[in-house]
Amino acid sequence: MASDPAAAAARHDPAGWTRTLAYRDRSELPFDPAAIASGSPLLFDTTVYIDALKGELATALLTVIASRQILHAAPALAELSLAIGLLDPADARTEATLRPIRDTLARIRPMRVIAPAAGLWVEAAVLSGILSRIQGLARADRRKLLNDALLFLAAEDAGAVLLTRNVRDFDLLLQMKPGASVLFYDRA
Fold first, then answer.
1. Domain 35-184: what homologous superfamily?
2. I need a labelling partner for 46 at 20 to 30 A (CA). Which of 38, 80, 102, 151 fits?
3. Which of 78, 65, 20 is nearest to 163 (CA)?
4. Where are the domains of the chain?
5. Over the stretch 16-69, which tens digit does the pLDDT of each residue have?
6. Whole-model pTM above 0.90?
7. Widest Cα–Cα separation across the chain
8. Alpha helices in the chain (DSSP H)
């Protein structure tokens, strides 16, 4: 889809986005698994990994996950892996915290990992830049939004449904690209 960086940069007109977007009511958002295309693979946002590690995925959601092909995006795996380098190895609690993350990464089949192409990075940067401007986001929130935009576009590029509990960022991205496929969930 978006392998050409110049074309990706031109895909969204920043001048067309001048007003702050309002967050939509929950009833207007895709929370129902029955509403997503049957057979579409799922691409996990980082929230899915974190909630799974904490045992906070609802049984109904686990059933949906078990019935689909699962894809993993390099940016989400990077967010998950940040703790490996960030936590102090000298702290006695670190190993117990990192073991489940390492186990999760070890179970992921490399052929199910997608790495976004340069064009997707550029398009994600444009989308997150527009949203940062019109929503008045703080500088610290912009990098997180860039990663979310990248996951959003990677899912679309792979023909997958992005599974996330992050309603805040992905509601806005869906308003910018309503044809993309996202499934929201709540913690158990």
1. 5'-nuclease (3.40.50.1010)
2. 38
3. 65
4. 35-184
5. 999 999 999 999 999 998 888 788 999 999 999 999 999 999 999 999 999 999
6. yes
7. 52
8. 5-10, 46-53, 59-66, 74-86, 94-107, 118-135, 139-158, 167-176
> Do you know the residue count of the chain?
188
Sign of the dihedral through C-alpha 170, 25, 56, 61: negative
Distances (CA, A) of 105 to 36, 66, 74, 169: 27, 18, 11, 25
Residue 184, amino acid = F
DSSP code at position 15: G
Q: Give me the half-sphere count of Cα atoms (radius 13 Å) on the Cβ side of residue 139.
A: 0
Token look-up 């995006």 returns: 73
What one-character DSSP code corresponds to residue 37? P
Q: What is the pLDDT of residues 62-104, one digit of tens each?
A: 999 999 999 999 999 999 999 999 999 999 999 999 999 999 9
Q: Which of 159, 119, 150, 111 is nearest to 5 (CA)?
A: 119
